[in-house]
Amino acid sequence: MTQHTTALFEPARLPGLDLPNRLVMAPLTRNRAEADGTPTPLMATYYAQRASAGLIIAEAATPNAVGQTYPNITAVHSPAHVAGWRQVTDAVRDAGGRMFLQLQHGGRVGHPATSGLTPVAPSPVPLPGTIFTPEGHRPAVVPREMTAEDIRTTVADFARAARNAIDAGFEGVEVHSANGHLLHQFLARNTNLRTDGYGGPVAARIRFTAEVTEAVAAEIGAERVGLRVSPGNTVNGIEEGETEEIYPALVERLGGLGLAYLHLGYADPDTPVFRKVRAGWSGVIVANPVLKEISTDAVHRASEALLAAGADLIALGRPFLANPDLVARLRHRAPLNEMRDRYFMYVGGATGYTDYPALGAQPSSESSESSDSIVALDGGRVA
Predict the structure, then answer these.
(1) CA atoms of 99 and 39, how far apart (whole Å)
(2) pLDDT tens string 225-267
């Protein structure tokens, strides 16, 4: 096969970590963990299949029990979680890969039927509509407003989870402040109605994300910490307000830490906020493009536009999900597998998870079928 030259396949570097190419596997919730959040051997197979990525950012893991969002998502706050993740990182490392772990607290995106606990959030503003639980879709509950002590404890939980991730063999962690989860809820004016030092003006609304990131950096070293944001993202009922002020202010506060990278979800190089963030951030930018179709040409076009606009690494979600050998397929301009939505979430097992064929292998006989899986996750959350 003919190889095509593009900056996507050039080596890159994060602080303290060399990458063989600029393609990053974005974090994708897949619900294949045990009920208590412990990663499974099947997950080790899944990630090892995708180890040719320059960097894998593993799916969101909760730093404490109350932060759980959906059934069978991963966690990283117990010895069993650490041991389970160690199987995954060992498998990826044996296959030549490198991994960060995303740390995510769901905030109001949670339910007592899933975690056994009432969700917590900046303010008692419930998630609109329903949420998926072990009992099916249930109406969202009103979260409990976090106290000052809750905030301090949660910051400490993130730092402890980061240490657990390093003990589990990850090269670093990504703090998740996007997609309508807890940290993003503090940033947004419709979910953060507080009148203390964590609510109101932009400088106060960015405080919680900043304090979590600073605590994690202090615990494991800033060079091992990335931060994910998604400016203007409305998923999970978020209305930020002042988007073009929030993110430059966050960049200004955290820019001197020396973080490994800033990860921009829904990255659009033509927007003012992208240009402001790129101009204000002196470090590595990981950009997750908006893909209107999943094809080799579409991925190349979107990726190269972001690289030309100043992104350093390109994070892809759905293309990696359905193509364990995505790097090779893009390098050779080969067609991509079609994603089978039916098996995206909440179903468990290898089907639609570890059975996508590599180039030259026999394609699966399963057809693409629509379901509420993407709706439940919200398709906007993955690239």
Answers:
(1) 15
(2) 999 999 999 999 999 999 999 999 999 999 999 999 999 999 9
What the block records as the tokens of 5 is: 């030259």
**3-class DSSP state of 10:** coil
* CB 276 within 8 Å of CB 244: yes
Indicate the pTM of the whole model.
0.93
DSSP letter (8 states) at residue 334: P
Q: Which residues pair with 286 in a beta bridge?
A: 263, 313
Longest dimension (CA), the chain: 61
Helix (H, G, I), strand (E, B) or coil at 255: helix
Q: Do residues 57 and 17 touch, judged by C-beta distance below 8 A?
A: no
Task: Show the CA angle centred on residue 319, arms to residues 105 and 14, nearest 5°.
Answer: 65
Q: Which residue has the tokens 């940290």?
A: 183
> What confidence tens digit (pLDDT) does each residue in 195-208 have?
999 999 999 999 99
What number of other Cβ atoms are within 10 A of residue 112's Cβ? 13
Helix (H) / strand (E) element for 286: namely: strand 285-289
